[in-house]
Specification:
2 domains, 8-stranded parallel beta barrel, binds NADP nicotinamide-adenine-dinucleotide phosphate, TIM Barrel, globular, alpha/beta, 14 helices, single chain
């Protein structure tokens, strides 16, 4: 399994991270036994990076991890969790206040039976808490040794930059990572978020890299998803998020490239994401070892540039304004001098 540094930090993580949202989920996930097998198979492949959240299976995912991590070499692992979603009905059991961040971290550590977490991520933005309070609380957790680094998830680009600016101004540690929805079908982050994270020296961690299973190719021509699968159980959210005519045509291309190179569509779809080194890791989700194996292959195998370009062109991302303005106004006027590489800002592709 190949490793990458998480953003500008010195933390080396596997480029395939084990997502554990399936652990303990009774509807479309797996129980403790399968979770232990999945973790074992991931560690056997050389993976070191595990992602969870208090939200997952109403804290069951963290509790299962607490049981199945027992006896594993803790220091070789990079363990990440998240807070933000309500954990009960009381008003402070949610969001990004100092009170909730500290309590959520301590509760996650207790459930996972850990002394510290490597990466603690805010799962979304809190419009009612000053960002200075949030960054200060995360910094306190770092100083007290309860977490090593902090990251964010699902923030707007301006919120990421504002949070890190507040951290810098006050001497707090900035975010080292952003966790976002990114796959061949949903490339929204290319517009603003991905360039912002690159600018901030943050690594990108991609959730739902297989579009919740669609990019495996298993739904081609199938009207009714299999019982127990995510598309069967929560299809009303996923259909809107991932399924339309051109997206299904893209899945066909993923499958035909997979046939050509003798790999699973899963490996091809994940490798497309990992071709961009702004991305540190894809978060692989599975409810069996069998499902996980082709994802693990993406930890070693690289797609050719030609196939990457073919897939990129198949379902172009509409970058919209101001990107279309840049093509007309910026490119002709600022492309005459070669930029010093470290000074060049990253924009969505302007060609
Ligand atoms: N920060 C956030 O807001 C956020 C949100 C979502 C997820 N996440 C993180 O990202 C991780 C991955 O997300 P995800 O689970 O949505 O990723 P995903 O890779 O897009 O979807 C995983 C699902 O695809 C199906 N699948 C995977 N491999 C397969 C194979 N070889 N054959 C057939 N089906 C296969 C399985 O679902 P079925 O068997 O049910 O079809 C599996 O549960 C999560 O575990 C979590 O850690 C974070």
């Amino acid at each position: 399994m190949k490793n990458r540094y998480l953003g500008n930090s010195g933390l080396a993580v596997s480029r395939v991270c084990l997502g554990t949202m399936t652990f303990g989920n009774e509807s479309w996930g797996c129980g403790e036994k399968e979770s232990a097998e999945i973790l074992g198979s991931y560690l056997d492949s050389g993976g070191n990076f595990i992602d969870t959240a208090d939200l997952y299976a109403a804290t069951e995912s963290e509790k299962i991890l607490g049981k199945i991590l027992k006896g594993k070499d803790r220091s070789s692992l990079v363990i990440a969790s998240k807070c933000w979603f309500p954990v009960n009905e009381t008003p402070n059991a949610r969001g990004l206040s100092r009170k909730h961040i500290v309590e959520a971290c301590e509760a996650s550590l207790t459930r996972m039976k850990l002394d510290y977490m490597d990466l603690f991520q805010i799962h979304g933005p809190d419009p009612y808490t000053p960002i200075e309070e949030t960054m200060s609380a995360l910094d306190d957790l770092i100083r007290s040794g309860k977490i090593r680094y902090s990251g964010c998830s699902n923030l707007y680009a301006w919120q990421v930059v504002k949070a890190n600016a507040a951290a810098k101004q006050n001497g707090y540690e900035p975010f080292i990572s952003g966790q976002y929805l990114y796959n061949l079908i949903r490339r929204d982050i290319e517009r603003e978020i991905l360039p912002a994270c690159v600018d901030q020296g943050m690594g990108i961690l991609c959730w739902s890299p297989l579009a919740s299973g669609l990019l495996t190719g298993k739904y081609r021509g199938v009207d009714i998803p299999e019982p127990g699968s995510r598309f069967k159980e929560v299809g009303e959210i996923l259909n809107d998020r991932f399924i339309w005519k051109e997206a299904l045509e893209l899945v066909d291309l993923v499958c035909s490239i997979a046939d050509e190179v003798g790999k699973s569509p899963v490996t091809v779809a994940l490798s497309w994401i990992l071709k961009d080194h702004a991305v540190t890791s894809v978060l692989a989700g599975a409810r069996s070892v069998e499902q996980l194996l082709p994802s693990l292959e993406a930890g070693e195998w690289d797609l050719s540039d030609e196939h990457r370009d073919q897939l990129t062109a198949k379902l172009p991302c509409d970058h919209g304004y101001p990107c279309d303005w840049m093509k007309i106004a910026l490119v002709p006027n600022f492309s005459k001098t070669e930029p010093e590489p470290n000074r060049a800002q990253r924009f969505p592709p302007l060609a």
